Every structure is written in structure tokens, then in C-alpha cells.
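input
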Amino acid sequence: MKKDYLTKLLRDECKYWSKKKVLITAPTGMGKSTFIIHELLPYLKERGKKLLILCNRRLLRDQYWQNLVQVYGCYDDLEKSVELMTYQQLAEKMNKGSCIEGLFCNVDTIVCDEAHYFYADSDFNGSGTFTLLQAIVYAGMKKTIIFMSATMEKVSPLIRQTIRNGYNKLSRYGEYWKSYDGCGEIIDKDFSHCADYERFHCVCMPDMDSLLGAIAESPKKSVLFIDNKEKGAEAKAALIKTGKVEAGNIAVLNAENIDDGENNVVIRNLTMANQLACKILITTSVLDNGVSIHDSEVGNLVIMTESKVSFLQMLGRIRAENVEYCNLYFVKRDDEIFKKRMLSYKSELEKFNDLNMFELNRNMDYYLHVVWDEDDAEKAVFYKKALVLADSGFQIYSLPETKARLVHKGTGLFVNEFAKCKIGDMYIAESKFYSLAVKNPLNVIYEQMKWIGKNADELEIRDSTYLKEKEKRMKEDLLKVKRVEKAALQEIKEKIVKEYRKDFFPDIYANNGTISNEKLDEVCKRFGLHFQTETDENRRKVYSIVEA
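output
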């Protein structure tokens, strides 16, 4: 698919979007940012109008900047035409007292790129998503606002309700209603049917060790999206342990180290050249949006998430224009993992449902104190997700009709409805995955493959190289038992139980970390070996294990 496809498709239509609210759903590779910079921006510039581009990641902002400097040769000209900012920067300005209407006063059109941010980041960035979207819509009601994302499905209902509520409030209580005529009109541009995932070959690995072994051996470059920074560090250590990849060829990115000097080369190559400067990149969701990887040497992708939005965003980092074939790895996981997460989301959802607006604002000081109370860390973590302290004037999503009087000095505590929505969706997703995994762990992978239009028969299922190697080592340890006496045999049995029981004979009961001779004989038979007892020249019992 050509990079300028979206540019050609919307070239004429965008001229009729004045004051309207436009939702563009377009898969990665259709040129959303190209359309903004090379079509919309020149159109606005010719008419003396300014464009504000908002995005959700600093790396994406940097990539926008690199694209802009290819277009503009004069900074003064650029500054008059376009402003570039992350959502987090805008939220910080508001938190420091800046008036958002003032920030928007010279702007004609606002682009909210990667708009799924308002949904996807809501459960850890409440005031920066729930409050911010309402403030942007409310303050920008008489402006053109364009929301863009490859994954608009979940966030679209939130955006629509915010627009409807904001328009109704302003037209009813604001200036003369005719000044808002047409500002609440929503235009849908859905190109999701253009998504192309043909380049991905789905592979199921039985365990993490086998996955990392395959990644280490592959001559191709690899990108691994891992749950958190701790698991990222563990994955790097395991890769180095294989002896097939050097530490210098592995980069680990997370929110805390993305600005470290050691990652400068990796970041610079990603944002400026769209290339991987290392053989293996391990990253958290800090890289899940916006940044494009146009590196033909990339051949392996690992994604560890149950969120459809995050999954598709991470998948979209590997661009079809340059990567014709890429292994998409899944790891088979036990149903207990999904059960644990399901129960966690269920508990949070129940806490959300127990929140009461009247009680929140009647005892506002108490709840604000709890958020920062380290004596009850669990409760503090929940309230940071669930509650938002915000200017009541911008709360248009779900403000109760009779509770407005409860707000104190223009601010109030509000339930973070976006976070509640996401947590509820994840509770449903984890419940579904748990049910599927109980029947067959592969069913979870099949379900995720449906997200990209893949059938179950397209999945390559590989055996565990890790278990094969471990089984080989166990048999070698067992065969070392040659005419040993009772005390030495006891030590060997304890070692066998400790190192191998979990993987190869969990059904055989181990008492105090060991097994009986009869049970050891049973283990040997399972692996084609024979446990035998003899009497030596001194009439003492000695034990040996031999090939059957």
C-alpha cells in the first residue's frame, strides 16, 4: 500500500471540514501523518490558519519534527504555521494553571493523533486522558478537531459522547447557540478494511525459553514487546545466557531509561532513519504507538498483551512497505495466568461500582489524602486510577445533573469513566481468554489471530527446544549413576527432583524433596532407562541406571 494513499483519498474532502469533528480510522501504513504534513498543513497555511498537532509519545513527536524540518527552511515560518505537542505536555500546562482556551486562541485546526491514547492510557493517566479529552473538545468546539488512530474501535464511543455533551452544554448555556452551528457535526472516515497483515507468519512457542532461544539464533532482527521493565531485563539476561547474542546487540527501552545516554543511538535511528541500530530490541509500551520501523532486516516480532488495541498498535510498528515476511511469535500460556488477571480486573471493577459521587465530594479532603497515603498503598493505587480532581467546567462526559453544587471552588472529584470502561473491557477479555485456555491454551492464540484475519490452520506450532535440551541433561545426569551407594544415590535423587520434577514428572509425589527407589525406577522407565540394584564384592548394595 502506498504511503500517500490517505493523502490522495482525503485531498479534496478535507477542505470542507471547517469546525467539524472528524474521526479517521486508518491502519498503519496509509500515511496519516503524511496527510497532515503534506496536504492539510499547506492548505491551512495558504489561508493564514495555524495547525496544532497533539500526539501521545515523545518519540512520535520527535518523528513529526523530523518530517516538518524537511518541509520548512525557516523556523519563524514553521512557528506561525504549526505547533507540535504531546498530550502530556498539554495536560501539564493545564495543571500549572494555563488556560486551554488561551492555548487554542490562535489555532484553527487541532489534530489528535493516536487518539486511542484517551482510552489505552486511561487507567494510569486519568487526568491526562479523561479530563484532557473533555477540555480539548470543550475549548475547541468552534474549531476543526481531527481524531486519528489505527485502533479507533474502543475510543470512538468515548469521543462521540464527549463531543455530543460538550456541544449540547455550550449551545444551551454558552454564547448564542447559532455561533456553534455545525460545530457538533461528526464525520466518520473509516478505512479499517484496508488493513494488511499478510506479511505476518504466526508461530506458537511452548515456553519463553524456547522463544528466546529462537530469537537468539535467528539471523534476522527482532522486536519484543514485554509487559514491564523487569521482564524486559530478565529477557535480556536469558538471551545473553544462550551465548548466541552479545549484550551490545540487545537494547532495552522503557519509560525510565528512554532518555539515558546509552540509548541515544537506538532512539536516533528509530526516529530519524526508522531503522533498528541493534539486533534485538526489547521494549515496553513506550514504543507501541506512532514510531515506524522501516527496516527490511526485521524478521521477528513478539507481543505480550491481551489488549486488542495494544496488540494492533504494536503490530503496526513493523511496516509492510519494507518488511515482506515477519514471524509473529505467541507463547502458550497456562489458564491460571488469565484467571489471576481476570479476578484482579473483577475486583477493580467492583470497587468502581461502589464509588459514590455524593460521598466523594462530601469527603473530598479524605479521598485526596488517601491517594497520597503510603500506609494503604493498595487503596492509593486504586484511587489514582479511579478518581480525577478537575475543573468542574470541563466535566461534560458524565456530570450528574444534581451534583454540580457539590464541587468546591470550581473543582471536584469525578469518577474516571474512561478507566472504568477500559478495566471493564479487560475483565471481559481476560474472562474470555481464561475460558478458552481451560479448554486448550492454543484457543487463546487462535482468538488473537482473528484480530488480524488469520485462521487457526495458519499457526505453526513448534516443539520446546528448551525442554528437549533439559530432558537431554536429565538423562545424562541419570546415566551418571554407576554403582553408587545409598548416601550418594540420595543426593542424586534430591537433585533430580529439584531440577527436573516440575517439567517431567510433576505427577510423582516427592516427600521432603526426594522420591523412593520405586518412584525413581518409574521415572527411568518413562525415559527409556533402567534402574537396577546390585551387590558389590563387600556385599553392599550399589545402584546403577543404564539404557533399557
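quick obs: The first helix runs from residue 5 to 10.
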